[in-house]
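Lab meeting prep.
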Amino acid sequence: MFASIVYTLAFLAHVMEWSATRAVSRAGTTRAAVAAPASGAGGSASGTTLTATAGPDGEADEDAELRIEKWGRIGVALTIVAVLLHFAALVSRGLGSDPIRVPWGNMYEFTLAGAFGVSLMYLVLGRRHNLRWMGLPVTGFEIIVLMLAVLLLYVPAGPLVPALHSYWLVIHVMAAVIASGAFAVGAIASLLFLVKERSINRGRLRPGGYLDRLPDLPSLDRVAYRLHAFGFPIWTFAALVAGPVWAEYAWGSYWNWDPKEVWAFISWVVYAAYLHARATAGWRGRAAAVIALVGFATLLFNFVGINFFFGGGSMHSYAGG
């Protein structure tokens, strides 16, 4: 899949961006160590030395910052190309079926669509909230998910089962993909919050490292909250409105206590608790991040675990094919 190759190139570009930042940090630390004893001498000669080196050092820092910006922009540009190729792959999957259909008739196609939602939300919301610092984990996530999809879940394109012949399927899945994408990016922000907080508390935050370059902890917490607040109403519509309407069309009942329906509701409850705790109890930081990750874990279990643990016992068992 060409999208996977371009995602890999985008990931490498963000790795270069991070490496260039570490180089700047090491250079700054070295100059500070050299300048400290010189200024401590207190003589005019030391002042002359510092002034003489300020110009070249400033130019070097500016060049280094330009390199960082260049690699960052390359990473984002490659991610945009990868998303376009990813979308083309989804469209081709649908057009390659006989008859032509929407490209989410089995677990392999659901995985492709869900991964597309993650990268799309990163790009769309990243422009608004300046999330380029999330480019490294997002592209890494895409590489892993697409690799696992191809290796473990691939099935040839085929016709939809009768239960999927409904325009409510299109509405339901599109809403679920958008919401899941926002939840996934929010989960990444929550995970980065916990990792950075732990590094700070243990005194292991390396200057110039990736964690050091991330926004401060309150900003990470705020980004995670905004992403979840964006995704929650869309998930509400997907799980509690479009899903039941589709179920009534397919099986004659709005609610069947099917495992996927139950776990979709569980995910909704966890995310509702997260937003409620933030709004009323004032939960911030670690507690909120843990709840957000629990919500994402229920989302993943609903998406993957139901098919493996319940199999044919679910009315959605076709999704595992």
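Slide two material, second protein:
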Amino acid sequence: MEAYPEKNCSIDRLVTHAKLVEATKAGRKTQQRRNGVYGWPGETFELDGMTFVVTDLKRQRLGDMTDADANAEGYPSLDMYRDLILKMHAGMTWQEDALVWVHSFAAQTD
């Protein structure tokens, strides 16, 4: 197993916004970027009775994000993702070299 840093927050806080919860449940959202680690690969979380498993955790520069990454976040384009993130976090600036943790996940199938 790869050595990951300690978690900054509970996995239950990984996906919280109502629209993003719905996008996750519908399979349109399969990633969440955070400044810290919220869950490790193999760990599960629940959204409205559905169970999801973290399939991958990696670091990424914001400047390396693509439209495909924004789609995996549940947004139609990188521009829309960036605009909404900056609107949600007043005073934040988009820094191309800023590193974030990319949590990838999928609905758990038994």
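Talking points for slide two:
The first helix runs from residue 18 to 25.
Strands lie at 31-34, 44-47, 50-61, 99-107.
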